[in-house]
Amino acid sequence: MKNSEAILVTPKHFEIQEYPVPEPKEHEILMKVEYVGMCGSDIHGFEFGPFIPPKDPNQKIGLGHEVAGEVIKVGAKVTKFKAGDKVLIEPGVPDDTCEYCRTGRYNICPGVDFMATQPNYKGALTQYMTHPEEWTYHIPEGMTTLEGALVEPAAVGMHAAVLGGATVGKSIVILGAGAIGLMVLQACVSLGAKDITVVDVIEKRLELAKKLGAARVINGKEQDTVAVLRSEELYGDHGIDLVFEAAGAVFTAQQAVQLVARGGKIMMVGTQSKPVPIDFLKINREVTIQTSFRYCNNFPQTIEAIASGRFNVKDMVTNVYDYKDVQMAFEEAIDPVKKTEMVKGVVKVAD
Ligand SMILES: [Zn+2]
Q1: What's the confidence (pLDDT) of residue 326?
Q2: What 3-state class would DSSP assign to 7?
Q3: What does the pLDDT read at residue 51?
Q4: How far is the CA of 184 from the centre of ligand 1 (A)?
Q5: What is the 60 CA–ligand 1 centroid distance (Å)?
Q6: Strand ranges (DSSP E) for the chain?
Q7: Quick one: pLDDT at residue 128?
Q8: What is the distance in A from the centroid of ligand 1 to the CA of 130?
Q9: How far is CA 327 from CA 139, 180, 277, in A?
Q10: Quick one: pLDDT at residue 273?
Q11: What is d(CA 337, CA 278) in angstroms, rounded to the nearest whole number?
Q12: pLDDT (tens digit, 9 = 90+) per residue, 273-319?
């Protein structure tokens, strides 16, 4: 068996390097990688290098953490899996010892070893990889490995929706219909919410949002989002119970403040790369602003939602690239024109 991995040698440049097939430790599985989703963080890492630069200048930088495939071999103490099983993984392995792990909030564990970032920068864009059994899940009947690879970003949406308290009867607005915004949308739908408005500036994404369960869409380029939603016909003086910021822009974060109802909640899901000035006087009626980070115990429910057909990740896939074309895949993802056509890109490493 031969193995290789796509290594980011400098920003914007991958090199596929030979690498020995890793040996699974006692509690690990060895997986043959089939599909790897391209996350916004991978695309950002490809363009600019890692968010947190490695301490060691010779550190190998791998990318990719949304991954599914087939078990090839298991360590001596593995009990849940055997060779031939189709699996997906949770890419962050927390330390299991800190106060956050002990209080059930392992997603904010400061000692987490998360793929494609510090301290190990281990990427999923490889043919074979090992992973702890504890953070590996079976792909159920009726789910493909391509869908399996997208459980991870879907779980980001699920965590935000659960934390936000999305449920039937609540008015919801999602600002931004990129991959994460559309994941949040479907998570809200799968939790029973119906009154959901999605806002974006790209028509193709809005069409997809409608198909995936949005009751209403607004093109923010053509219409004044706040004026439309605050009109008498819609939410008027009351405002919106739950607003998700999923665009990662100062403008949309400020819109969230203008839209939220008294006692309502703003969920910050997008990564804000700049500080956002907020007029707290506008939200002094007990509004909650909460950030959401990755996911915590959300994989089982996300797997069930996808397997049962209530959460449609496959229709979000706009681009599938072969592993040998990984360089082109990421070049297209940062191309000013092509990136607007891409909702979710996936790299097919093996069938
Ligand atoms: Zn911890």
Answers
A1: 97
A2: strand
A3: 86
A4: 26
A5: 25
A6: 4-10, 13-18, 28-37, 66-74, 86-89, 92-93, 113-114, 128-132, 136-138, 172-175, 196-200, 216-219, 240-245, 260-268, 288-291, 317-322, 344-348
A7: 98
A8: 21
A9: 28, 23, 38
A10: 84
A11: 32
A12: 899 999 999 999 999 999 999 999 999 999 999 999 999 999 999 99
d(CA 238, CA 168): 18
| Phi and psi torsions of 119, nearest 5° | -90, -10
The DSSP call for residue 180 is: H
Whole-number pLDDT of residue 348: 98
For the chain, the farthest-separated pair of C-alpha atoms sits apart, in whole angstroms, at: 65
Distance from residue 104's CA to the centre of ligand 1 (Å): 9
Q: Which residue has the tokens 């006087």?
A: 281
Say how many Å lie between the CA of residue 44 and the centre of ligand 1: 26
Token pair, residue 236, equals 């008027």
Q: How far is the CA of 305 from the centre of ligand 1 (A)?
A: 28
Instruction: Please list, in sequence order, all residues whose beta carbon lies within 8 angstroms of the beta carbon of residue 323, skipping any fewer than 6 positions away.
Output: 6, 16, 125, 127, 347, 348, 349, 350
Q: Give the pLDDT score at 254.
A: 96
- CA of residue 293 to ligand 1 center, whole Å: 14
Tokens of 347: 């790299």
Closest C-alpha to 133, from 179, 87, 190, 170:
87
Q: What is the Å distance from ligand 1's center to 103 Cα?
A: 9
Task: Report how far ligand 1's centroid is from the alpha carbon of 70 (Å).
Answer: 28
Inter-residue contact 47 to 11 (CB < 8 Å): yes
**Contact residues for 162 (Cβ-Cβ < 8 A; gap 6+):** 187, 191, 298
Query: Are 203 and 180 a contacting pair, CB within 8 Å?
Result: no
The one-letter amino acid at 277: P
Give the CA dihedral 257, 262, 265, 268, nearest 10 degrees: 10
Determine the distance separating the centroid of ligand 1 and the alpha carbon of 273, expressed in angstroms.
26
174 with 193: CB under 8 angstroms?
no
Do 248 and 270 contact (CB within 8 A), yes or no?
A: yes
Q: State which residues of the chain have pLDDT below 50.
A: none
